[in-house]
Design goal:
The protein has ten helices and eight strands. The chain has about 230 residues and is α/β, with parallel strands linked by helices. The chain has a single domain, classed as Aldolase class I (TIM Barrel). Strand 4, helix 4 and strand 5 form a beta-alpha-beta unit. The radius of gyration is 17 Å and the shape is globular. Bound molecules: ligand LLZGTKA7. The ligand O=c1ccn([C@@H]2O[C@H](COP(=O)(O)O)[C@@H](O)[C@H]2O)c(=O)[nH]1 binds next to strand 8.
């Protein structure tokens, strides 16, 4: 199992609430993820605040645009010193290659760069509405192969696809899996879900977990329970 596989998704509209949770967490126990909501509200200062507290940060902005624009955005993420950032694989091969190339000047300090395959909130029926008439796992495999061809470090997928992707793309290609739900927690808008131990057993490298921790009555206890379940 990867060291520190838990990435806590900080989806808050109030910076103090996020910082109150962070103050209770230990950077040796988890990494943090900031997405579109918090980055739009609080910007690069939030990234600095999190780094000042000793945490690795996944900047989850899922860039999807023309290659030149995405390359510049990924370089801007590298300037912030984040640990990991991402693009949408459906932006295509040229876009992903441009993103990867933009990180070359950063050498060993470049963030890990991964691509979102099919959002974990989407089902086969959602894909059909987009004219994609194959099961989600098949579309995920196609986009993950393209991501590897572009030279990226891994993909965002559901843990349900992890075993197949590890055997298709090798153990070093990182699998970052949201849609993680401990037994008894509400799936909410997530469709392709797994429990934390199931996800690790299936081959996930990193588990993205938001509401089961952040909306719990005691978020620290919820994180500790997940941590224990993986021990
Ligand atoms: O396919 C994806 C890609 C990203 N996410 C993000 O992960 C977290 C999940 O939060 P939960 O509260 O545990 O559902 C959230 O920030 C999403 O933007 C994803 O869920 N699925």
């Amino acid at each position: 199992m990867t060291t520190k596989p838990i990435l806590v998704a900080l989806d808050y509209d109030n910076k103090n609430h996020a910082l109150q949770l962070i103050e209770k967490l230990d950077p040796n126990m988890c990494r943090l993820k900031v997405g579109k909501e918090m980055f739009t509200l609080f910007g690069p200062q939030l990234v600095k605040d999190i780094h000042d507290r000793g945490f690795d940060l996944f900047l989850d902005l899922k860039f999807h645009d023309i290659p030149n624009t995405v390359a510049k955005a990924v370089a801007a993420a590298a300037e912030l010193g984040v640990w990991m950032t991402n693009v949408h694989a459906s932006g295509g091969l040229a876009m992903m290659e441009a993103a990867k190339k933009a990180l070359l000047p950063y050498g060993d300090n470049a963030p890990m760069l991964i691509a979102v395959t099919v959002l974990t909130s989407m089902s086969d029926d959602d894909l059909k509405l987009l004219g994609i008439n194959v099961p989600a796992f098949e579309h995920v495999q196609r986009l993950a192969k393209l991501t590897q061809q572009a030279g990226l470090d891994g993909v965002v997928c559901s843990a349900q696809e992890a075993t197949a992707l590890k055997s298709l793309l090798g153990k070093d290609f990182k699998l970052v899996t949201p849609g993680i739900r401990p037994v008894g927690s509400d799936a909410g808008d997530q469709h392709r879900v797994m429990t934390p131990p199931q996800a690790i057993a299936a081959g996930s490298d990193y588990l993205v977990i938001g509401r089961p921790i952040t909306k719990a009555a005691d978020p620290l206890a919820a994180l500790q329970a997940i941590h224990q379940s993986l021990a």
